[in-house]
Give the backbone structure.
Amino acid sequence: MSNPQLMEALDRAERALDRLDRAASSLRESREREKRLKSTVREVVAELDSIIAGGSR
């Protein structure tokens, strides 16, 4: 493989690694957002349960 071809291949590999890093970061952010959403939903459901229980007395 000639030097220019080798450099081009290395550049492509670096760009691919950058894309993988961005995808992994995005996935982590999505998981964190999902955890926050689930926590909020649990809180809201607990509050609704409390309201319903108080209204049935």
